[in-house]
Specification:
The chain has 392 residues and is of the alpha+beta class. It is 31% helix and 28% strand. It has a six-stranded antiparallel β-sheet with strand order 1-15-16-17-13-12.
């Protein structure tokens, strides 16, 4: 059955939902398909780029998002992510004093200018990593956390695997050039979303415009922080082989977008292109919460169980990003499996829900069991087998 989601979300009770739908579903990840009147995304002269809504994960503009690219100092997003994870586990503290090894002190490229042999508070080193993009800070922090940079890189690659970054492989903590050191725009989005969601207390550091250490004041290389007050992160990168790169994030009217720009030809163009992507996303799209986590959307018929019904819905909730002005046009259709036998575990698939904007599929998500159902006794099994036979 098809229903208007905007009206449905505000007026219909859970019981009414079940009666209206009489169904449920196996659902996929959100996706966006262009409508006939959707504005055309910017076409930009860079190796790869991607624009995504942070909450829904919907991709709004892209060029070669799965292409393997050298990430340069964008690498330090993962360096920081691993560090945040270790801090959260209690394996390190902001008060730790980080020894600056000779290797860290001799690092080339961008630096925070720590002195070899000195011990620097981890919190200061973290600022040097994020604001000043210090390669010396990256190596010193890696050695402090894991004993060596190579051991820390193992943690980076393990974190990438856990986040589903299948097109990524790290060989160092700083982003120094190496043919075996690569990532993709799509993988960077996965990392950026996880960083913002899981470590919000540290994300605020990415909007700091300058930081002074050892008497040297350095400015954040993300020029969008000065140009657009809604931009509050995240990271720049540049080497001769990688070109100019920028991961930018901005929030307007409770909608957060993340853009990844890889391989632009200048510092100015990486900022200009990133701004164009953000403006396109905020100008033409809006994000809505359709279902909260653990929302009951229907009741599915269960055979051979201690009860004959199980609440079906979504464990994680659902956000959709759609063209502006199309929220009232959204329609939802839910389908439930007919042959559901007990036992049923929480999270088992029961069907799927399809959200459409006209003829365009905006999102699909699985309908799953929100409660377990145990198997019934012999009598229930026999009688339900007969009932199911005659119901088909």
């Amino acid at each position: 059955m098809i229903f208007n989601l905007a009206k449905f979300a505000n007026t219909v009770t859970v019981k009414t939902i079940a009666k209206m739908l009489c169904i449920s579903i196996l659902l996929l990840n959100p996706l966006l398909v262009k409508a006939d009147n959707q504005p055309v995304a910017p076409v930009l002269d860079a190796q790869s780029y991607l624009l995504v809504d942070h909450i829904s994960g919907v991709e709004l503009a892209a060029k070669n998002p799965a292409k393997r690219i050298e990430p340069a100092s964008i690498t330090k997003l993962m360096t920081a992510y691993v560090l945040y994870t270790e801090l959260a586990k209690g394996n390190a503290t902001l008060e730790d004093r980080v020894l600056v090894s000779e290797k860290a002190w001799k690092m080339e490229g961008s630096r925070m200018f720590v002195e070899g042999g000195k011990k620097v508070p981890l919190e200061r080193m973290l600022h040097g990593l994020i604001v000043q993009s210090g390669n010396d800070a990256a190596v010193a922090l890696a050695e402090h956390i894991a004993g060596s940079e190579s051991a820390f890189v193992d943690k980076m690659n393990a974190a990438a695997a856990e986040l589903g970054m299948e097109g990524t492989h790290y060989v160092n903590a700083s982003g120094m050039p190496d043919k075996a050191h690569y990532t993709t725009a799509r993988d960077i989005i996965k990392l950026a979303r996880a960083l913002i969601k899981r470590h919000p207390e540290y994300y605020k550091l990415y909007k700091i415009k300058h930081y002074t250490y050892n008497g040297i004041k350095q400015y954040n290389r993300n020029k969008l922080l000065w140009r657009d007050k809604t931009v509050d992160g995240m990271k720049t990168g540049h080497t001769e082989s990688a070109g100019y790169c920028l991961v930018a994030s901005a929030e307007r009217n409770n909608m957060r977008l993340i853009s990844v720009m890889l391989g632009a030809n200048s510092e100015k163009t990486r900022s200009d292109y990133s701004q164009q992507l953000l403006e396109y996303g905020f100008r033409f799209f809006e994000t809505h919460k359709l279902y909260a986590s653990n929302s009951v959307l229907a009741e599915a018929r269960v055979w051979k169980g201690t009860t004959d019904k199980v609440p079906a819905g979504t464990i994680d909730g659902l956000y959709v990003t759609i063209q502006k002005g199309h929220y009232e046009k959204l329609q939802g259709m839910m389908e439930l499996y007919k042959d559901i036998d007990a036992p049923v575990q929480r999270g088992d698939p029961l069907g799927k829900a399809i959200i459409k904007d006209g003829d365009i599929v905006v999102a699909e998500l699985p309908l799953v069991a929100l409660e377990p159902v145990d198997a019934g006794g012999l009598w229930t099994s026999v009688t339900d087998s007969l009932k199911k036979l005659f119901s088909n």
